[in-house]
Amino acid sequence: MNRIELGNKVYNLALSTYIIQAIGVFSSLENKPFLGYLTYLILLLLGIKIILSYYTKKQLFWAVTLLGFGIWLYYITGLGDLMLFMWFIISGRDVKLRKTFRMALKVYVFSILFAIALYAFGYSTDVVKRLTDGSLGHSLGFSNANSLSLLFFQPILIWIVLRYERFKFRDYAGILLAELIIYLITRCRSTFITSIILLFLLPNIKTLSSHKYSKRVLKILVYVAPICAALSFLLVYLYSRGGAVVSVIDSLGSSRISSAYINIIRYGIHFFPTANNPVYESLYTLDNSYIRVAVHFGTFVLIFVLFFYTRSMWFMYKREEYERLTVMVIICILSLFETNLYRLSINVAILLLSEGLYSSMLGNDPDHSNVSKV
What we know:
Elements lengths: L2 H24 L11 H15 L4 H21 L3 H10 L6 H24 L8 E2 L5 E2 L7 H19 L5 H18 L2 H21 L9 H4 L1 H17 L3 H9 L3 H12 L21 H9 L1 H20 L3 H13 L18 H9 L13
Antiparallel strand pairs: 1-2
């Protein structure tokens, strides 16, 4: 076994541990402080993976810089999600994504079913939410219904990346049926709506990409992340001006615009991260990823994340990896409603960003040794 193969096994072990930890954290089990210690194991495994990887001098410099930046963010804010976001991407050098995604698919499915089984046998509780229309959303053993819906969405994204070239009608029908069932259980509208958009985009992107001129339309998708970020702040501004239309949009989006506005007024937005870590009241939970990053970490970090997404998505466009580009577009849209933009546990597509890091941002990689064409 050479260094590359060993590094892949270490990386997959770190990812498996992280997924299991995340699903444990999202569960409604009581007394689970031991899960926090797994973070140290995950960081140790990712550190070993970095040591086992091959880097050019330029790549090594930027990798170490970004690792240090992630640690600094954790030190200042006390929030580890963005640090893990960077560590997983940086350590993704030479990872065979096909094997990694297959492994992640199995771990997600097993862990989610195991968590539901714990609920079925009475070890965890069903946290029920009542919507304004009177309908009930069930969590089936998770901390809230949205957590179940977001976690369930991850195997679907992986399935698309793995099977896109062989997609048939049964794949589209299966995804639609699965998301409909989860929606009826959880009443989570964000993942259900984005799954509908996803099912619309996938076949149409195939059509657009087959024509020389219509393929240029796909360039617009590359810039979805900054567009969604700008839209988020625009809606908050219009809400502050008392727009009736925005108020209707806010009610349809479960008050995400108003909660974003309240959090900005209460905590403010700084250019660099500060130690003023917001402690949210349940009524004003900040679910919009773009504004959450700005409030938590500052606009400098938000600009960095948006630039990172855009550069990586441009790389996918240039390599005609349209299924991956579509998945990233869906993640950017979902980030308008959920906190998944930088949280790997509910955004497995983050693993795709390492391609953009090493092939676009940190130096040329002409042999594409970092990627495994799925």
